[in-house]
Design brief:
Distance between the termini: 15 Å
CATH architecture: Up-down Bundle
Helix content: 55-70%
CATH class: Mainly Alpha
Order of helices and strands: EEHHHHE
CATH topology: Four Helix Bundle (Hemerythrin (Met), subunit A)
Shape: elongated
Radius of gyration: 14 Å
Largest sheet: 3 strands, parallel
Length: 114
């Protein structure tokens, strides 16, 4: 399935790959690098929540919230906001679940031609 970044919407639970193209004006390699950083940030946020470092998890969520739409990933923005808010409340279960949803989405996303 080939979709533009603007059309991905929320990832469903079917486990189907989400194949997307880099948005116009952004080099594909830049988008590929961003996606890799999101995956690293998700792992780092999960580790931060597990060790009770809610400040770190909040910052990571905030960054993804702010950058997701800039790179054409509205789902990263939504999940980043959820991580940020849960971390602000120091709600470990919510934060872990928000990170898990982000990680599930990121496992499905592939950049066309990558």
């Amino acid at each position: 399935m080939m979709e533009s970044l603007e059309q991905t919407g929320n990832a469903d639970s079917s486990g189907e790959r989400i194949l997307i193209e880099a948005p116009p004006g952004l080099p594909r390699q830049l988008v590929v690098g961003y996606l890799g950083r999101c995956r690293e940030n998700a792992r780092e946020a999960q580790a931060a929540v597990k060790r009770g470092d809610y400040g770190k998890a909040e910052v990571l969520g905030h960054r993804m919230k702010g950058s997701g739409c800039s790179y054409g990933f509205p789902d990263v923005t939504v999940h980043g906001a959820a991580i940020e808010q849960a971390a602000k409340r120091q709600a470990a279960g919510e934060a872990e679940a928000a990170v898990a949803r982000l990680e599930a989405y990121l496992r499905l996303v592939e950049i066309a031609g990558a």
